[in-house]
Specification:
Largest sheet of chain B: 4 strands, parallel
Oligomer: heteropentamer
Strand order of the largest sheet of chain B: 2-1-3-4
Helix content of chain D: 25-40%
Strand content of chain D: 15-25%
Strand order of the largest sheet of chain D: 3-2-6-7-8-9-1-10
Structural class of chain B: alpha/beta
CATH class of the largest domain in chain B: Alpha Beta
Number of helices of chain B: 16
CATH architecture of the largest domain in chain B: 3-Layer(aba) Sandwich
Chains: A alpha/beta (about 150), B alpha/beta (about 290), C alpha/beta (about 675), D alpha+beta (about 350), E alpha/beta (about 290)
CATH topology of the largest domain in chain B: Rossmann fold
Chain lengths: ~150, ~290, ~675, ~350, ~290
């Protein structure tokens, strides 16, 4: 009997103009990807605060993806550039405290890259599946959980 | 500076003066060459005409040998060797299936990080300033036509070196010796290449066009960086003369030989005496010894 | 709060992979959901009525529609909600089609995911607040940047509708590239004959303010309310006094020195000059880089001969500020400069063609000037090197275009046509001449275009060779063109007297700078990026800015003119109302908590954050805190994410809403 | 008074037995930071000369954070679920008199009207094995708050080192007696008089102030300008309260456990935080730090005494040792005392 | 010391400053504590020596002092870095502070509350601002000091060498200890928010409960909010009652800022801030 495959939970924070639209395009093109991801639509990667990512882990995510427009494509011109700098700092910090790039992913997916979206999301899911459930975070999430 | 050295078959045979001159010049330029042990055929000519996998696996083996000798850079003086080595590396890294096959043949993982370079690239790394500082014999009186042939800069996407249609890197290096380089039109035209043996008529005709244009534009000498080019342009001049009696001979030197002259080496040391077309006049022009 | 959930089957589109009935049933258990139902087609009239009736009958406060992407029908459903009497911002969409049913095929997984998406939307909508659109007044005045045919057309269309236009041209005269052309395809009518009346019309139009020799320096504000700073470069001429008599130009002692831009270097001009005889305005300009007075302090010949004392050597650049409501960018193109590598070293030149080295290897615009009756040869086809008539001429298409090696993969679109035109003009003027055209493909899509090319081949005997040229070199006074005829499968060598290269149309060299000034996205080639390639081809992502002509991509004259009129129409749509309604999703500052570090101000792409004074009871300023100018804010939320204390929040996507959305995941994860 | 003797070796065996009997042993950690549970008698590390840990063992009876109940938000209403009370039996081993007293002091506030079961359950399940204290530094002032290094007040059992390898152990409470009963075989009989001799030799910290003087002065000098200077450098962190063995203020917050369910948490709070008294309206009755600092002094030396006849301070000196800006409560009390004495 | 007192007296007497934030001696022990001098008598109590570890810049943004006229402050080079950062972040007006800059020969390491051990503080190793970068008056002289090894840098490298799981375990053990007393925040000159994100209740991004999850979020976000802003005074680590090695976080962020953006906080009034600016060339190899 083969063991059931671990189904990771991925939260994706995406910008409305590029990645969300790119994900729509994947749908319109009837491309298929694994269903383990839930998107949260934001106006811009500039809106994505590191606390969102931490909160997603606190809520049980095994992996997080942040995705927005390629530099130069930002609907708001600069939002993604500020976000990029922010996430250089934050991803380094997360890596330092033990949340490395196998759980925390970043991508630029434009509105026309439906295929890339599918590739990125499958890659993220596969990578997280490989490293398994985020037991380390689950342990601290379970402190004070009521066992019935 | 230490650089790996892949001589290939030509440099041990018809092109041995290329090997001689190159080793001498590089030692003057403080470049140590480390020949890769147990190297084999680069896969040019026969292999890549008959068996694609073989033509990739042969250079792959050589690259892995270089890797094992911890060589960061591998010099392939022969343009054909250069082309095979760099081309195979490119192909393997862009084709996972091929990589698997090659690894099966090699019986090891292919993970080459060695950079394959040609002689012009090596001299660029050495630097014009360095060459200039060591020049003993000024070549300011001679005019040089730089002949690139087909393999040195192509395919551009793989070599990522110079402009395939209008290369100028050799001219730039030669300017360090003080020699003048002429603007001419046949620097990338075909010399007939491997037809040398089977279709002498084609080679004679194509080579003649190249030699003529060089002369027409005032060159005293043609400089090449490929043993095949050299053999066609140098060896075929007698045949040309038979067909076109008015043909005047023009010496064809390897890039290393020309630089060797400038660095004060004599003709014999550089193997210039081994050429079919005499270069004695050229050497006299710069008052260099044969 | 009573929330209604409406799950759409979208026919089979959603229904076949998402069990919509189950989603609706399970959604009913979500705290706050008072009503939940599925329907075959939610966006249809009956479907919308289901929503409207439920809102009225169940007294719903907010609705969630699980359907296609919000980009598709958010507006539809928000309107339906509004029709039924709730604020339209209390309607949220769960995207269960594009991001669920269409991309997954396992029904249980897709159904679970759909329910999650519904739950996320429910949690968000619980925290939505009723909003009203922001109204901002519209300045009914347009700025047109670029005075080529596109700019001229856009300016005239807007002005003729009764609105003021400011037309800015960086050169001393309007007219653009079209004024350099000899004849135009496919009719072969004289370019200047059709253009110059338009130029004069612009000049005389009471509603058009023409600023030539000027450049846009700074653009502030937003749709309907732009403030534009324009630099008027010093002409060294008093424009009020100058009558355009031209005496100064005749008397200028350095006639043969300066590079003549208009003639593409095929002729020279004096230091004081008008670019061409029909220039508008007909006012000269002094080229200070060559003028003897500016170089040595002596001469002043122009000043001496000018009866109107219109020469102003001390004139300075001045800055002009204009208030406009819309901006039309019509900055056009440049020809790919083939003689040297562009600064961006990724792009390689065509050294093998010898442009720049051989005087008789010229580009298309130079040929236009040679063929033009007002050009340096008065329309006679003479080659630049020795002014003899070329008997054999080779035209090469796609020089730069469609050549990834040189950095431009795109087709320049007009070269097939103008090369045919050039060959034809040549054959018309040199009857015994031979014309060869090397081409890759003939792309003659357009009214009467294919016929035009056929005419060149069949009636005028132009020889078309399908293939590329590898090398051009000089031998015995001839230009040896070596190429390949791919149809015959043979190499071709032509000993030509002259070669014309149809070089690529590329973006203006400073296109990216202007783009950044205005806030317009641009593609990797530097062409401005439209919002949607099909449905919104003249708009850019910055609202109120429109594109016309070749600044967007290579275009011919009729396309440029059509696009210019379209851009004008878009401006007029804007001017059709006194107020603009804008999405109210803007940032607001929690003034009690703002510490005034102003990181928000630093990251705001729109300069929408201002420093607001905080005063004590005595009226003394005791602190500064951030304040959002809602007119400028576009709602990106970068400030919100940057603010360490979250004292600035983006309405519609505030922290509480996003928190609730993230939290909505946990059930599926616990 | 009952007194027993025990060797160091047997003390270890005693610890071993306690672990076997499912007691949780809690000791000062080796880094001097806080008290920690040990799982092995080899880790038994006690000495009368140890410096007090930065934090007291308060967190074991009054948790820094704990759920008081859970809730489940459903479409048809809210379901409440009680929190489990821990029945862990805890032994605080080697507590200094200034720590040992803390449970008694806090017990008063947790029982004066509402009986706080969270505290009481833990307190009832706790055994405090106090120990004579031979540590002194300039921050110690137990004698000024009516305690002393030899006080067994608050301890159930009290250890007195007689030499390097031997201890006397005094049975202080009935609870202590019951607790030790099963293990008596490890103990020999002792003589209280010998240990009294030891007590006499112990060097006591100098008494710096009379707490009663402080109490009455504060009552009459609420607006005294002394407080303005005393508290002006306070940065408003909660360290003093959190390391204090008897500070017991807490905050109540809700947090999620998952989607639409959550728990109500009881968390430590501190009167030095500006949020401590912030009203929902935005009004803050103690709007500056000096007022907050005055509150701290007043609560410790007056209000608690008025209400419970107990000083809310054991003189352990932790808050002064740890204060980021060096505010020394013993010093301040001394200054207040001299203000009172000089009738300023 | 006399020079400082004289200068302080002069400033107070001629009303250049309203008050001076400085250091005074404790009672009997070596430690000094922050002291507000308002008159000449107060000025005579001011001291400056190697025990003056506190970063007094924290007081500049406090409501009790801010906006009530020019404040004088006795500041070491590192404290001045904080002042520069505060000016850049619009927290204090450059014209409303009078910096009495102290040439500094290093502060002692507070291994013990009473400063009995006098090794050089970690923050003083490789100090580049022993003479402050900005001051109105400069007092004292610098002399050569012996610097111990940079053990903090070593510790960071050791943690970096661990694998991700072990890094997590290391930090989990550290953060578990946190009691949320917020001494780190209160003592930090750059934690000046009117309302800290941890105190924000709608929504509560960071749980205020002192359980490991809440502590993890708190310490991570604090480090993140300080990235590119922390000037490395080490006060947070010094005051942490639970001995959490906060400098290992903050120093790491400074190292990243230096490596990725060649940026150091508090160096100059004219340099742009790290967050709030961007560069087209910013690294993006971590972005797919």
């Amino acid at each position: 009997m083969s063991e059931e495959k671990f189904q990771p939970k991925i939260v994706a924070f995406v910008c409305n103009w590029c990645t969300y639209t790119g994900a729509d395009l994947a749908g319109t093109s009837r491309l298929k990807y694994q269903p383990n991801v839930r998107l949260i639509r934001l106006p811009c990667t500039g809106r994505i605060d590191p606390v969102f990512i931490i909160k997603a882990f606190e809520k049980g995510a095994d992996g997080v993806l942040v995705s927005g427009c390629h530099p130069g494509d930002c609907h708001y011109n600069l939002g993604n550039l500020h976000a990029r700098r922010r996430f250089i700092l934050f991803s380094e910090l997360m890596n330092y405290v033990g949340i490395d790039s196998s759980r925390l992913h970043f991508s630029w997916v434009s509105a026309s890259e439906g295929k890339k979206w599918v590739d990125v999301i499958n890659e993220v899911i596969d990578t997280v599946r490989e490293v398994g459930p985020f037991k380390k975070y689950q342990k601290i999430n379970k402190e004070f959980v009521l066992h019935e | 500076m230490i650089v790996g050295y892949y001589p290939g078959c030509s440099l041990t045979g018809t092109g041995k003066e290329y090997d001689m001159s190159l080793r001498k010049v590089l030692s003057l330029l403080d470049v140590q060459v480390e020949e890769i042990n147990d190297w084999c055929c680069c896969g040019a000519t026969s292999a890549h005409a008959t068996n694609h996998l073989l033509s990739v696996a042969l250079p792959a083996r050589n690259l892995m040998l270089a890797q094992k000798q911890n060589l960061n850079e591998l010099l392939a003086p022969c343009a054909a060797c250069y082309n095979r080595l760099i081309g195979s590396k490119h192909e393997i890294s862009h084709n996972a299936d091929l990589k698997k096959k090659v690894e099966f043949v090699l019986e090891e993982d292919f993970n080459s990080s060695t950079e394959v370079i040609n002689i012009v690239q090596l001299l660029q790394k050495v630097g014009k300033e360095k060459i200039k500082s060591l020049v003993k014999v000024s070549l300011k009186d001679i005019k040089v036509a730089c002949y690139y042939g087909c393999l040195l800069v192509r395919p551009n996407a793989v070599t990522k070196f110079d402009d395939a249609e209008n290369p100028t890197s050799m001219e730039d290096i030669i300017s360090a010796t003080g020699a003048l380089t002429v603007e001419w039109n046949y620097k990338t035209e075909c010399c007939g290449g491997a037809h040398s043996i089977a279709r002498k008529d084609i080679v004679t005709f194509l080579s003649k066009n190249i030699l003529d244009d060089a002369k027409l534009n005032g060159a005293h000498v043609i400089v090449v960086a490929c043993p095949m080019c050299h053999s066609n342009l140098d060896m075929r001049q007698r045949a040309i003369k038979k067909l076109y009696p008015s043909h005047e001979e023009i010496p064809v030197l390897y890039l290393s030989e020309l630089i060797g002259i400038a660095l004060g080496l004599n003709g014999k040391e550089l193997g210039i005496n081994l050429h079919f077309v005499d270069a004695i006049n050229l050497l006299q022009m710069v008052k260099a010894e044969m | 709060m009573k929330i209604g959930v409406f799950v759409c089957h979208c026919g089979e589109n959603i229904g076949k992979t998402v069990d919509c009935a189950t989603v609706a049933q399970r959604a009913a258990k979500i705290p706050g959901v008072a009503y939940s139902v599925d329907n075959k087609y939610m966006c249809s009239d009956p479907g919308q009525n289901v929503i409207k009736n439920a809102i009225r009958e169940k007294k719903l406060d907010a609705v969630v529609v699980a359907s296609c992407s919000p980009h598709m029908h958010e507006k539809t459903f928000r309107k339906a909600a509004a029709d039924a009497g709730i604020n339209k911002y209390l309607c949220e969409i769960a995207n269960v089609r594009e991001q669920c049913s269409w991309v997954h095929d396992n029904i249980p997984d897709a159904t679970d995911k759909a329910l999650d998406l519904v739950r996320i939307a429910v949690e968000k909508v619980k925290r939505n607040i009723p909003l009203t659109a922001i109204r901002v007044p519209v300045t009914k005045r347009a700025l047109v940047i670029g005075g080529g045919i596109s700019g001229i057309q856009a300016a005239l269309d807007i002005a003729n509708s009764g609105f003021e236009v400011v037309l800015v041209e960086k050169e001393p005269s309007i007219g653009g590239h079209m004024s350099q052309l000899s004849e135009t395809f496919p009719t072969l009518d004289c370019s200047q004959c059709i253009l110059t009346p338009r130029m004069v019309e612009v000049y005389q139009h009471p509603k058009i303010k023409l600023l030539t020799y000027s450049e846009v320096e700074k653009v502030e504000g937003f749709i309907g309310n732009f403030t534009v700073t324009i630099k008027k470069k010093a002409r060294s001429i008093d424009e009020e006094k100058c009558t355009g008599c031209g005496l100064c130009i005749q008397k200028c002692p350095i006639k043969k020195k300066a590079f003549n831009e208009f003639e593409e270097g095929l002729a020279t001009r004096p230091a004081i000059y008008v670019p061409f005889p029909q220039a508008v305005p007909n006012i000269p300009v002094i080229d200070r880089s060559v003028c003897t007075y500016y170089q040595t302090g002596k001469c002043q010949m122009c000043l001496k001969v000018c009866g109107r004392e219109a020469i102003l050597f001390e004139q300075q650049d001045t800055l002009v500020t204009e208030e406009v409501g819309s901006i039309v960018i019509a900055t056009g193109y440049k020809l790919y400069s083939i003689d040297k590598k562009p600064e961006d070293s990724e792009i390689k030149g065509y050294g093998e063609y010898g442009y720049g080295k051989y005087k008789d290897v010229i580009d298309g615009l130079q040929f236009e000037r040679i063929a033009s009756a007002s050009g340096p040869t008065n329309g006679e086809i003479l080659r630049p090197s020795d002014k003899t008539q070329p008997k054999k001429i080779v035209f090469i298409q796609c020089v730069g275009s469609r050549d990834e090696q040189k950095g431009f993969s795109y087709c320049s679109k007009i070269c097939c046509m103008y090369t045919a035109k050039h060959a034809m003009l040549y054959k018309h003027k040199v009857h015994d001449g031979e014309a060869y055209v090397f081409y890759m493909d003939i792309r003659a899509g357009g009214k009467m275009y294919e016929e035009f090319v056929r005419r060149a081949i069949e009636e005028d005997g132009v020889k078309y060779i399908r293939g590329r040229v590898s090398k051009i070199y000089r031998q015995n006074g001839k230009y040896i063109v070596k190429g390949e005829d791919t149809i015959a499968g043979m190499p071709v060598v032509i000993d030509a007297d002259m070669v014309v290269l149809a070089t690529a149309m590329v973006a203006q060299p400073n296109a990216s700078k202007l783009a950044q000034t205005i806030g317009v996205p641009y593609d990797k080639y530097g062409f401005y990026q439209e919002v949607h390639p099909k449905l919104r081809p003249v708009e850019v992502s910055t609202a109120g800015v429109f594109l016309a002509g070749a600044c967007q991509s290579p275009k011919d004259i009729p396309e440029s003119v059509a696009m210019a009129s379209a851009a004008a129409a878009k401006s007029l749509v804007l001017f059709g109302s006194d107020y603009l309604e804008r999405e109210p999703t803007v940032a607001v500052v929690n003034e009690a908590n703002c510490a005034g570090c102003f990181y928000c101000l630093k990251v705001c792409p729109y300069n929408a954050i201002e420093k607001k004074e905080v005063k004590n009871k005595l009226g003394e300023i005791i602190d500064y805190i951030a304040h959002v100018n809602a007119g400028l804010c576009q709602g990106c939320g970068t400030c919100n994410a940057t603010c360490p204390s979250k004292s600035i929040e983006l309405i519609g996507f505030n922290d509480e809403q996003i928190y609730a959305e993230i939290n909505a995941f946990s059930e599926s994860f616990v | 008074m009952d007194e027993k003797l025990i060797t160091l070796n047997n003390l270890k065996i005693f610890a071993e037995e306690l672990l076997k009997a499912n007691y949780t042993l809690i000791l000062q950690d080796k880094q001097g930071i806080r008290w920690e549970k040990i799982s092995n008698s080899d880790e038994l590390h006690i000495s009368s000369k140890l410096k007090p840990t930065k934090a007291s063992f308060k967190e074991f009876v009054f948790s820094k954070t704990e759920p008081i109940f859970y809730f489940n938000n459903k479409n048809d209403g809210v379901e409440l679920i009680d929190s489990n009370l821990s029945a862990e039996k805890m032994v605080f081993f080697g507590s200094k008199p200034c720590d040992a007293k803390s449970i008694n002091i806090m017990s008063k506030v947790f029982n004066w009207d509402y009986k706080d079961n969270f505290f009481n359950t833990k307190a009832e399940n706790s055994i405090v094995i106090g120990m004579l204290c031979e540590y002194r530094d300039e921050f110690c002032f137990c004698t000024s708050v009516n305690l002393s290094p030899v006080s067994s007040d608050g301890s159930d059992l009290f250890l007195i080192p007689t030499d390097e390898n031997n201890f006397a152990i005094r049975i202080v409470t009935e609870k202590g007696r019951e607790f030790i009963q099963p293990f008596l075989k490890l103990f020999a009989e002792g003589n209280p008089e010998t240990t009294d001799q030891i007590f006499k030799k112990i060097n006591l910290p100098e008494k710096g102030f009379e707490s009663e003087v402080i109490r009455s002065w504060i009552g009459n000098n609420f607006e005294h300008k002394y407080f303005e200077r005393a508290g002006e450098i306070c940065l408003g962190c909660g360290q003093c309260a959190f390391v204090c063995p008897v500070c017991h203020c807490f905050d109540i917050v809700d947090e999620e456990c998952g989607y639409s369910c959550g728990r109500r948490m009881k968390n430590w709070d501190a009167c030095q935080f500006s949020l401590f008294t912030l009203h929902g309206s935005g009004h803050n009755p103690r709007h500056n730090q000096t007022q907050r600092y005055r509150q701290r002094i007043s609560h410790k030396f007056k209000y608690y005494v008025d209400k419970f006849d107990e000083i809310l301070c054991t003189g352990c000196g932790r808050c002064s040792r740890g204060c980021p800006v060096g505010i020394d409560i013993g010093q301040i009390a001394k200054e207040v005392h001299s203000l009172a004495a000089n009738k300023v | 010391m006399n020079e400082l007192r004289e200068k302080a007296k002069e400033l107070l007497l001629n009303n250049t400053v309203k008050l001076i934030i400085g250091y005074a001696n404790g009672n009997g022990h070596n430690r000094t504590y922050p002291f507000i001098a308002r008159n000449a008598a107060d000025a005579n109590r001011l001291v400056f020596n190697e025990y003056c570890v506190n970063n007094l810049a924290v007081y500049l943004t406090r409501k009790e002092f801010k906006g009530k006229g020019i404040i004088g402050i006795v500041a070491k080079g590192c404290d001045v870095k904080a002042i520069i950062q505060l000016i850049q972040e619009n927290q204090i007006n450059k014209d409303e502070v009078y910096i009495i800059g102290m040439n500094c020969n290093g502060a002692v390491n507070q291994l013990d509350n009473s400063f009995e051990k006098t090794t050089l503080a970690q923050k003083c190793i490789n100090c580049t601002v022993r003479t402050p970068a900005l001051y109105h008056a400069l007092i004292g002289t610098t002399k050569d000091i012996e610097e111990p090894a940079d053990t903090l840098g070593e510790k960071i490298k050791e943690v970096e060498k661990l694998n991700a799981d072990s890094r997590w375990d290391f930090w989990e053990a550290q953060f578990e200890k946190c009691i949320k007393c917020y001494a780190c925040r209160q003592v930090c000159p750059l934690c000046y928010c009117e309302q800290c994100i941890v105190d924000k209740t709608v929504p509560r991004w960071i749980e205020s409960s002192a359980h490991t999850r809440g502590n993890f979020s708190w310490n991570i976000i604090r480090a993140f909010h300080l990235s590119g802003r922390c000037i490395g005074c080490g006060e947070c680590e010094r005051v942490c009652p639970m001995d959490i090695p906060l400098s290992m976080l903050n120093r790491k962020m400074s190292i990243i800022a230096k490596k990725e953006f060649d940026y150091s906080a508090g160096v100059s009034l004219d340099s742009p801030t790290l967050v709030g600016t961007y560069n087209m060339k910013d690294r993006q190899d971590f972005i797919k």
